Amino acid sequence: MRVTLGQASPERHQIRKFTTRSRGCRPGVSPIVLRWGDHFWNKLLAGGKAEQCGWLRDRYGLSWQIVPTVFYEMLKDSNRARAKRVTEAMLKMVKFDIAGLKKAYEGA
Q: What is the value of pTM for the model shown?
């Protein structure tokens, strides 16, 4: 299931919910595309713990990953050096930083 709220924007995010057992498993995952990544990051993080690469664990112990859709667009670039720089930048992040991803993408 994919739901888009609001107008198309490069600032949209995908929010993925995983139980502690299914974290990292692709089958059965239903991404929901939302524009308010920061809002949901902050709400889900309240009482929880931030983890690497856009992951967080909420106060109930459920794991969530909030990923800006622009990240996936950058990874699809035919220039593999750009995609590699974006991946390397992402691996250093806890919460995704769109400006940091764009900087890595541009090679700056």
A: 0.67
Q: Token pair of 67, please?
A: 């990923």
- Pairwise CA distance, residues 94 & 100, whole Å: 12
For the segment 3-36, what is each residue's pLDDT rounded down to a tens digit? 333 444 445 555 555 444 444 433 333 445 455 6
Instruction: Report the relative pairing of strands 32-34 and 13-18 from DSSP bridges.
Output: antiparallel
| Cβ-contact 16, 54 below 8 angstroms | no
CB 13 within 8 A of CB 32: no
Quick one: the chain helix, strand, coil %, rounded to 5? Answer: 35, 20, 45
| C-alpha distance from residue 32 to each of 17, 45, 68, 77, 81 (Å) | 9, 18, 11, 23, 29
Residue appearing with tokens 């764009």: 102
> Quick check: is 1 in a domain?
no
Which residue segment(s) compose the domain that 86 sits in?
A: 13-106
What CATH number should be reported for the domain holding residue 31? 3.10.180.10
